[in-house]
Every structure is written in C-alpha cells, then in structure tokens.
Amino acid sequence: CIELLLRAWDASRGVTPAMSDATYELALAEIAEYLSAQDEMRNGVAEHVLTSLVAGHLQRDASYSESRALADAKAMIRHCKGRAWILSDAGLNWNGEALYAFTHSSFREYFNAWALSRRCATPKRMANELYPFLRDGRSQITVQLAIHLFDWKATNGGSLCVNALVQRIAQSDDMTSAEARSAVNVLLDAVAAVQLQAQTLTNLCREVIRQVIGPANRSPVELVDLFSDNFRHAHGIPSILPSVFASLLEVGDTEVQLRLCWLITHVSLYLPSGEEWDKAAKEIEEIDARNNSFDALLDLHAHNQTLAWHLSVRRGRLSASDLEATTN
Q: Less Cβ crowding at N or C end of the chain, within 10 Å?
C-alpha cells in the first residue's frame, strides 16, 4: 500500500516527486515513532509540530539548511495529505491550527516498525524496544512488522529477536499471566513471516507449554494448533519436543508438576500422526518412565488432590483395594 501511495500512483501519471521516496519514508518513520510515543497525539497532531519534526530530520540527517528544510517539510506534509493520502485532516486544535493524523493506523504502525528496525543495531536492543509493546498490549502489528523488517536487516535477526522476547516474557515480573499469554500469541503470529532457529523454536514451544501447565490457563487444546501443519514451523517441533518436556521437569509447584504429569501422560492426544511425531511421543514416554518424581508426587497427593487421584488411576498407581476404599 505504501508502495502504491508513494511511488506507483504518481509514477503512473508521470509526476516526478520533488524529493526522493526514501526521504519521504524516513521522515514518515520519524513522525510515526514520535506519535506512537505520544498517546495524546495519535488522533491528531498540529501542523507546526509535524513541520518541526520533518525539518529537524532533514537538517540533522540529510544536511539541509534550515530554510530549505522548513520549506521542503511543508511541501512534504502537503503531498502526504494530498496526492499520497497518507496523512488526513483531523480537525482543528484549540487555537484553530490544522491537525493531521495518519489516514489509517496501519500506516503509523508500519512506519513506526520501520523506524525501530533502522534504529536498533542488535536483536537484544530490538527486543528491549518491543517488550513494552507486548507488556502494555500496544500495537501488535508494530511488533510483528518490526520483527519481520529486522529479519531482513540482520542474519537470523527475526529469530534472535523472538528468542530474546520469549526469554523476557518467561522471566518477567511485570506481566500478569494473561498479559504473558497475550504476548506469546503475538509472537506466534509474528513468526509466520520469519525463519526460526532451533533454539528459538525450543524456547517458544517451552513457553507455550509452560503457560499450559502454569497459571496462564492456556488451554492444552491450543497445542493442537502449535503442532499442526498450519503453524509454519511445526516441521521442526518433533525433534525438539522431548527436550522441551525434559526441561520442565521439577519446574514449578505441586500443581504445575501435576499438570505437566497429566500433559505428558496424555501427550499423544495432541500430537499429529506420522513417523516423526510417533518418535517424539515415544521419547517423551521414555523420559516419563525414567522420571521417578511424578510417581512420588502422585503417591503423596493421590488421596487429597483430585488431579493426582485421576492420574494415579490412569497410570496404575492405585490398587483395586485403594480404589474401593477411595470410592467408599
């Protein structure tokens, strides 16, 4: 859409822009990043503020003189409001000055994401910039676009950024469980556009499963979507899934471990059919068989915890006499 508005439309009519397309895009990125940080201005910003932002960018980053920067900034804003349709009238402020806003929020989100991807030199820096968006539930489109754009900027940039964000979410003490679940959902959508390294996929799967067994109340049914062919990276999951489950053993309190025991006991219900998935299920069963902590946990809580009782029955930990005594 930006390509059409800034380039193709004028080019099709033989209109030559006074400034390069890159100059427009960089200036719009400056505007979008500023507006995204100013909640009170998202619905409209005064013309003099826009002019000052663009002129400052041209002077600082493009070696413009003050007078030329001011003149070209005004022309650029007129063009973006006129033929380009990127900016639109948003009324008047208290003293009658025109207010402008991005015609569609997706324009602001795209240019803000582009600004972040240009400014951040490393995946960790990008993750630090994007984490507040996830924590505060702001503009998931900006997060997804920024990850995608950063993937083009640096080798494995998107994967490394996602990995850093997953680790921040897993270790966060400033997110509620619901916010953490929402943040992971944003990342699950974002990774549809980038390749993932094995370590990133491992950590992402681990966090999803941790949220299933932990306080986030993520439904186990959602694992079916994670493991299905509709998830771009599902092909890599069978080889890393056993190690993911192994890494969660003895993590969390009794309730978390009982939920993990339940999930491992019934894991085949959520896995697709196929040789690789069958192999993963078998390896998970072997991990379960080698892990004595579940048996000890069930023996301790089978008579006072409903889930533990059901698991003890399912796994044959209760004898016929135990069952009879419990039911009576």
A: C
Q: Where are the alpha helices (DSSP H) in 154-292?
A: 157-171, 177-190, 198-213, 222-227, 237-248, 254-265, 275-290
Which residue from 83, 93, 99, 79 is spatially nearest to 28, judged by alpha carbons?
79
At residue 130, does pLDDT exceed 90?
yes
Q: Is the dihedral of CA 63, 67, 73, 79 positive or negative?
A: negative
Supply φ then ψ for residue 237, to 5 degrees: -75, -40
* Rounded distance between C-alpha atoms, residue 13 and residue 271, angstroms: 55
Structure-token pair, residue 78: 């007129």
Instruction: Answer for the pair 249, 255: CB distance below 8 angstroms, yes or no.
Output: no
Q: Look at residue 41 and tell me whether its pLDDT is greater than 80.
A: no
Who's near 302: CB < 8 A, 6+ residues apart?
308, 309, 311, 312, 317, 318, 322
Q: Average pLDDT of 232-260?
A: 94
